[in-house]
Amino acid sequence: MNKNKTKFIVIGLMFGLLLGLYNCTLHDKGLNVAPATGNVLTSVKTAIAPKFVTGGATWSGADATLWKNAPVLTGKATVPDVEGGTNAFNGFIGNSTTISMQSMYDANYIYFLISWEAAQPNLENSPWFFIPATKQWAQGQSAPTYDVNGKVIMQSFVSDGFMMLFNINNSCADFTSQSCYGACHLGEATMAVDPVTHQITTSTTNVMHTNAPNEKLDVWFSRMFEVPQTDQLYDSYMDWNGGAKGNDGFEPDQSVPDGGNPPNYSSNAPTNGTGGFSNVQTLNITGTTIPENVPLWVKPAGSHYTNAALLPADTANAALLVIAVDSNGILTLKGGTILNPNIGTTYQWVGTGIGNNDQTTWIPGAIVAPFTGGEGDVNANAVWTGSGWQMMLKRALKTADVLEQDVDFSPLNNIQFGVAVMFMPSGSINAADNEHAILPGLTLKFQK
Predict the structure, then answer these.
(1) What integer pLDDT is reported at residue 437 of this predicted model?
(2) Which of 68-72, 223-227, 240-244, 282-286 shows the lowest mean pLDDT across its residues?
(3) CB 79 within 8 A of CB 92
(4) Has residue 414 got a pLDDT over 90?
(5) Residue 229 pLDDT > 80, yes or no?
(6) Most confident region among 86-90, 111-115, 147-151 by mean pLDDT
(7) Residue 242 in 3-state DSSP?
(8) Helix (H) or strand (E) holding 130
(9) Of 2, 164, 220, 380, which has the fewest Cβ atoms less than 10 A away?
(10) What are the counts of helices (DSSP H) followed by strands (DSSP E) for the chain?
């Protein structure tokens, strides 16, 4: 068979599989959350801009006098039971929380004030822990770990979060009734083609993407281990191309160049770049060629972490670079300081948690840095109220977007949107609700 014919068959198979992506959505599996009916969030015009803080300062809360003029939309977000035998959301189904939302706009910006209930604040993001039985380091996962009998042996370790998704040009057909779950694809067949042999391998995975090339969503993701430190959220978008690649459809908003290169962690503190970086590296166990993942930066034993994630300032001062790990899991830090996780239980896997669950001693799994360029378009302030989160968002009505990755509010037209929330319900063993609760069928309307 000649090369051109082989190439034609490969392309044909790829095209056929891509068509199959459109027919394997969550919509076909069923969604047991009724769409909201008549749920309109009205954004009112204001002559006084809500106050925002910058530079990681602590926000004390919203100006009640100013916000009392904005109508409140309240709804209950619930984790749906996805039909079709996927078992994707087991352990979370039915968890719900009450969400309140308000909005205002002025000549240049739109503002949102959002509150949601939670049993406790969860700020960790894959913290490091030590497994005494194997003498190895590992990171907490975003879903609970079960034994062979289905018993939880380690809780999930993931940050609270809140997501807003705007239907750009109201282009996504399934979005009205299903919100983000209209872009969920569970048990989807994806493929990879070897560039040399042209062999095709397929696998089954769960990815998120829209269902046609003309469909696009503007995605604002507030991760609570980041927001209080940076006064920003992660501005991204979702399109159909994630499914074509066989990966997640979330893409960083690059409509405006980032203007910074990722830092060289091994020698310099991360002073530029965009957003968060994983606090992880791979070192060979001393005296062997066996690799092990270990933290990149840690504070010496006895030190406390004041934030859920490391900050650039920490890596320049209090935190030290990990330069070696031995067969007992003992870490050597730059300058010769030793961190021995075998002494005490501070870093150890104990019960279903870590140590005595003192989060101030957990080694963070992330280093937080400011978002730049298009990823930093949305300012965010957040405060834990004692019974939940209150967060304020601010974005230009029209950004410098040239790639249609941002929703354009400036025409003041109605826009479909949805919300998703990660939280800990009362009595739950899960640190945060990884399979997020949703409130679909929402519309943003501008009071003119």
Answers:
(1) 81
(2) 240-244
(3) yes
(4) yes
(5) yes
(6) 111-115
(7) helix
(8) strand 128-131
(9) 2
(10) 7, 28
Over the chain, what is the mean pLDDT?
79
Between 252 and 334, name the one with better pLDDT: 334
Q: Model confidence over 262-311: pLDDT tens digits? A: 444 344 344 444 677 789 999 999 999 999 999 999 998 888 888 788 88
**Contact call for residues 82 and 30 (beta carbons, < 8 A):** yes
Task: For 11-45, give the DSSP string.
Answer: HHHHHHHHHHHTT-SHHHH-B-SPPPSSEEEEEEE
Q: Which residue is it, tokens 């968002």?
A: 393
d(CA 434, CA 424): 9
Separation of alpha carbons 343 and 417, rounded Å? 51
Q: For 3-122+159-255+375-446, CATH number?
A: 2.60.40.1190
430 vs 92, 125, 146, 187, CA distance in Å?
A: 9, 13, 12, 24
Domain ranges of the chain: 3-122+159-255+375-446, 126-154+260-371
Residue located via tokens 């209930």: 117
The number of angstroms, rounded, from the C-alpha of 33 to the middle of its chain's C-alpha atoms is: 22
How close are the terminal C-alpha atoms of the chain, in Å? 66
Give the DSSP letter string of 91-115: TTTT-EEEEEEEEEE-SSEEEEEEE
CA angle 436, 114, 357 (to 5 degrees): 55
> Using an 8 Å Cβ cutoff, are 172 and 215 in contact?
yes
Dist. CA 99–CA 30, nearest whole Å = 24
Measured distance CA(322)–CA(315) in Å, rounded:
11
HSE (CB half, 13 Å, CA atoms) of 390?
Answer: 15
CB-CB neighbours of 409 under 10 Å: 21
Q: Are strands 39-45 and 96-105 parallel, antiparallel or unpaired?
A: parallel
Running DSSP on this structure, what letter comes out for residue 327? T
The 3-class SS string of 286-306 reads: CCCCCEEEECCEECCCCCCCC
Looking at per-residue pLDDT, the higher value among 187 and 382 belongs to: 382
CA distance 179 to 419: 7
- Tens of pLDDT, residues 101-111: 999 999 999 99
CB 258 within 8 A of CB 342: no
> In 3D, which of 252, 193, 197, 237 has the Cα closest to residue 18?
193
Q: Which two tokens stand for residue 282?
A: 């791979």
Q: What are phi and psi of 122, to 5 degrees?
A: -115, 115
The rounded distance, in Å, linking the Cα atoms of 123 and 131 is 22
